Amino acid sequence: MRDLWPDVERLLARIERPVRYIDREWGAVHSSDTDYRVGLVYPDAYEVGMANQALQILAARLRLLDGVSVERAFVPWVDMTREMRIASVPLFTLESCAPLKECDLVGITLPYELTYTNILEVLDLAGIPLRAAARGDGDPLVVGGGPCAHNPEPVAPFFDAVLIGDGEEAALEIVEAHRRVRDAGGDRAAVLSALARIDGVYVPSLYEPDDRGVLVPSGGAPPVVTRRVLADLDTVGVPICPVVPYADVVHDRTTIEVLRGCARGCRFCQAGMVYRPVRERSADGIVRDAVESLRCTGYEEISLTSLSTSDHSQIDEVLRRLTRRLEGSGVAISVPSMRVDAFTLSLARLLGEGRRTGLTFAPEAGSQRLRDVINKNVTEDEVVATVSEAFSAGWRRVKLYFMLGLPTETDEDMVAIADLVGRVFRTAREATPPAERGGIRVAVSVSTFVPKAHTPFQWEGQLPQAEVRRRQAILRDAMPRRGVELSWHDASVSLLEAVLARGDRAVADVIEAAWRGGSVFDAWTEHFSLQRWLDAFDATGIDAAARATTALAPGDPLPWSHIGSGLTERFLAAERDRAYAGVTTPDCTLEDCTGCGVCPDLGVDNVLAGGGRRG
Amino acid sequence: MADGFRLRVCFRKVGRLRYLSHLETVRACERAARRAALPYAVSQGFTPRMRVAFGPALPVGYAGEREWYDLWLTQFVPASGVLNALKDATVADLAPLECAYVAPKEPSLAASLTIARYDVRVKGGIPPEELERSLAALMKTGTFAVEHKGKQKVFDLADALPKEPEVTVVQGATIVRMTVRMGERGSLRPDVFVAAATDAALDVTRTDLLIEDEGAWRRPL
Asked: Which of A389, A352, A326, A327 is CA-nearest to residue B46?
């Protein structure tokens, strides 16, 4: 193992925020004398990657294996990569400051589409061939996983293997299989063939498209790779003592995952589909881990995370107990992803004890008709009642998320968003004492609908850009001005997201061309360049607008047909029909099974802390 | 808030942690105090914060051998117990070195620590004698001008550098020992001064911080 620290340190005087590269944080684990090294990479800057819980979970899990060390790596900021390239310093892991390329396995998270060019930046800086096909026995095994693994095709050529679903168990199986074959003298092909036999592991090189474009396996790989699911979160420990960064990172606090999965069934939402079933942790376990984690990390804030924390069956009890334990310590509790209809005054008061941050709700659509189409089971009266309660309890800021371009949307739905925002603002005013009304802020964030794999809307086309702009104009004109801060998610970025989210293997060429053209840190507004992507589409002969707007139909071959989420196509198509009929589907943690297929297919069930059903 | 118990802590910031900014150092020390489960006092108000006050900031890249903060506790805990608890809760490069209680009315560290001692390690081939001559020539001019964000600032060297810089060789490394008086309107950066005499790369360590009291210098404890 080469120690690159002297080479790295020489560069630090010339770059911003050297704290990103120095390691030595509280909780960082330095192992020596291991015979298998894993480098876990989050494909974004240190400040973003350090907020990622999956990385900390996987690191803690993999360290359970004898002789395995786990290190972190992130994408150096652009000033550092420039210096590294000039000085020929390769990408290094933080803990040992050794070349990432010297790891046995490099695990890269696939958090969202706009990090794809960063993956190539990581591989290139590390000196690892970009394409799996070009790697030899001296190169590390490059394995992906995470949310975007559910349609891995756009990045498939860059990975030796991709894990679909939960990594708590599967990551260990991958390392063990690799080490076993390696120690027995097996070559790269033997390793890949062993990996393909692990449930949930997709080895792209073992699949070739047939004449319909459907990927078919060879070499004993399964026709459909089925998602891995951890049946019960309480059976594996969570990282109590994660690395505590010095730098001011995104979400600079300790986090305890309180539940995984969401069964509300919003039809546009990939996370709500591919993380089923709902698995709640016990109140005892959450409180114990939260208190322990605060003691171990010294953080001044704890976040109870999940897709919808306020849905937890025992959230009131958890917050009551935690608030009591933390009294007088100045430690704040935060609950992201609060649901409009699960927000109660008691919950508000419990959080108010610590520190009050802004509230965020996502009605997604302005009219009840359209909310029924997308199965966002929340009414305008609920939104208004919640805002009234929250502002009466002392909140002064609320952020509302909406989507534009949803299936069946009309101009009236745009006006309905503005009307809802107006009603929210008036309600907030009425609930606030006159002297404090100047501080009221209603932030409205509007993004463009992006069809996602494994959702009932996976077949939908995205609105053409001109139509997006026309609807934005309607919304802008109708939106009340006073007290409202309106922001847009760039529609051209949404177009790119749509192409990448539903892309096939050909899209990998576009990603590589964009990266070669200089695209990196695309999720950072100041670094994103639409032109570089348009050039990349031109160079590869792929029509981005056509791909984004193309509507497909159930039965059509999809680039992710060989990835099994557990949801049946029959269920997704039925949900699509119900959407067009304006019929909602209930949450299976509250009412009957909706027949999505996950539980019987994957041999799991909803796990609710109170047993039985919620509510 | 009642006065409580004011504990003065001396710590180091060395090794790779020289690259922490002042804010990062503050946050790291606060988190160590929480991990040490000290009965720290919390400010009143909308966003309660730990009551802690640091000495003068150390720029990113400078090491510090004897840095300081005051921490207010709500209960008396023997200082030796606090020191051990803090040591166990802190990474080695940021380790606490000593601590003791001081009077609640004691002036703040930021205001009273006005004398700083530095070792500027010269990482290049300039002969020590030559460096000594260049620095002496700089001193003789009596003033030193620094450009900062387009503005020029002129230091009166007799005030800013109350002792002549001293060049020594320690285990083959050339080191300039400097003593800097920190004023309300900023202080002379030792590396900027030495850089006027050599192009070599410089490594700065603040070796001590002192209180100037009626012409005499003393440590804060």
From this structure: A352
Q: Which amino acid is at B17?
A: L
Non-local (6+) Cβ contacts of A256 within 8 A are A238, A286, A289, A290, A293, A302, A303, A304, A305
CA of B116 to nearest chain A CA: how many angstroms apart?
A: 22
Cβ neighbourhood burial of B143 (10 Å; 0-12, 13-18, 19+): exposed
- Nearest beta carbon to residue A328 from set B31, B33, B42: B42
Identify all chain A residues contacting B29, using CB atoms and an 8 Å cutoff.
none
Hey, is A53 helix, strand or coil? Answer: helix
How many beta-carbon pairs under 8 angstroms link A with B?
Answer: 71
Spatial neighbors of B145 by CB under 8 A, at least 6 apart, are: B152, B153, B154, B155
B/e letters for B88-116, b = 16+ CB within 10 Å, e = fewer, are: ebbbebbbbeebebbeeeeeebbebbbbb
Walk me through the domains of chain B, giving residue ranges and CATH numbers.
5-106 (3.30.70.580), 112-218 (3.30.70)
Residues A244, A26: contact at Cβ < 8 Å? Answer: yes
Secondary-structure class of domain A358-506+542-563 per CATH = alpha beta
Please state the domain extents for chain A.
Answer: 5-222, 253-356+585-615, 358-506+542-563
d(CA A589, CA A4): 52
Interval B66-121: pLDDT, tens: 999 999 999 999 999 999 999 999 999 999 999 999 999 999 999 999 999 999 99
Q: Using CB atoms and an 8 Å cut-off, which of residues 16-75 of chain B contact chain A?
A: 16-17, 19-21, 23-25, 27-28, 30-35, 37, 42-43, 46-50, 60-61
Smallest CA–CA distance, residue B161 to chain A, in Å, is 25
Say if the Cβ atoms of A26 and B28 lie within 8 Å.
yes
Element (H, E) at B11: strand B5-13
Q: Which letter does DSSP use for residue A311 in this model?
A: G
CA distance A456 to A494: 19
Q: Which CATH class is domain A5-222?
A: alpha beta
User: Which chain B residues are within 8 Å of A328, Cβ to Cβ?
Assistant: 42
Query: In the 3-class helix/strand/coil scheme, how is A59-105 assigned residue by residue?
Result: HHHHCCCCCEEEEEEECCCHHHHHHHHHHCCCCECCCCCCEHHHCCE
Helix, strand, coil percentages for chain A (3-state, nearest 5)? 40, 15, 45
CATH number attached to the domain at A253-356+585-615 = 3.30.750.210
Question: How many residues would you count in chain A?
Answer: 615
A253-356+585-615 and A358-506+542-563: identical CATH topology: yes
- B-chain residues near A246 (CB < 8 A): 17, 20, 24-25, 27-28
Average confidence (pLDDT) per 10 residues, chain A, 615 residues: 95 96 97 93 98 96 97 98 98 98 98 97 98 96 98 98 98 98 96 98 96 89 97 92 94 93 96 97 96 96 91 92 89 77 68 61 95 94 90 88 97 97 96 93 96 98 97 96 93 96 97 98 95 97 97 96 97 98 96 96 94 76
Reported ipTM: the value is: 0.93
Strand pairing class (B143-148; B113-123): unpaired
